[in-house]
Amino acid sequence: MQKPALVIMAKIPSSGGKSRLQELLTPRQREQLQWAFLLDILDKTQKIKEFSVFLALTAFLNLLKTN
Predict the structure, then answer these.
(1) How many Å apart are CA 8 and CA 4, to the nearest integer?
(2) Do the Cβ atoms of 13 and 31 come closer than 8 Å?
(3) Considering the entire predicted model, what is its pTM?
(4) Which band of pLDDT confidence, cut at 50, 70 and 90, is reported for residue 59?
């Protein structure tokens, strides 16, 4: 029997993310915070044996956009 799937959807962390924190953190700190959030959730989901865990990442650049 196959396990149910758990898909984690996230943007690739970047210095431009978490803009609400720009007054408190440098761009590098904001990127590091995003990586910490993502790695933390991946660590936690690896411990869930009842699901197959998948990660779907999207970049900020829209490579398929046409003008």
Answers:
(1) 13
(2) yes
(3) 0.73
(4) low
